[in-house]
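protein under study:
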Amino acid sequence: MPKLEKDDGHTTWNTRGLQANREELNTLLSNFNPILVCLQDTFLNPNENTDFKNYSFYNHPGEE
């Protein structure tokens, strides 16, 4: 399992591919129940499924 940075309910994790590590992220969300999660994914496709139970998703794509 990757190193998870957590401070006061805020969690940051570099996904190394959100879809490839989706189950791992679901496990982290279940185990730690953070109030805020910041995901870093350079190659996130806007058409990919980004739904996670009990969480809202906001995306700010980078510029090419």
The chain has a mean pLDDT of 77. The radius of gyration is 12 Å. Residues 22-32 form the longest helix (11 residues).
